[in-house]
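Troubleshooting: if your tokenizer reports a length mismatch, compare your output against this known-good record of 138 residues.
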Amino acid sequence: MKKMTLINRVAAAFVMTLAFTAINAQAAGSQQPPAKEVTVGINDAYIPGGFDSEADAYVVVNGIFQNGCYHWNGAEVKNVDTYHHEITSKALVSQGLCLMVLIPFQKEVRLGHLASGDHKLKFVNGDGTYLEKTMKVE
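Known-good structure output:
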């Protein structure tokens, strides 16, 4: 029978430790409370040009998540009237251990088909403040 060398023993112990860690993480993950949806603020929005009434208009928003527990969950677009739109960015926040660093994000938000003319876009933050931009649709 072959004797295990010190390197083989250390490797086997490492593999067993990883296996136990994975099992514990999976068990802990099933016990964590569900993620909570929150409104996140944006720093700026890029408004591309060249849209016409037949095109699917979009904007690109960017901001910074507070930590690694935040994950993009989309945006809600509320059409106040034909030429006024409110966009609210949403994120899911998971509970538990988080990487405590600021995490930049940049996401595309689809607005759909818009009528010809100048559109006012209001990007609403969670604290009631907002950023307003104009989009021209030909």
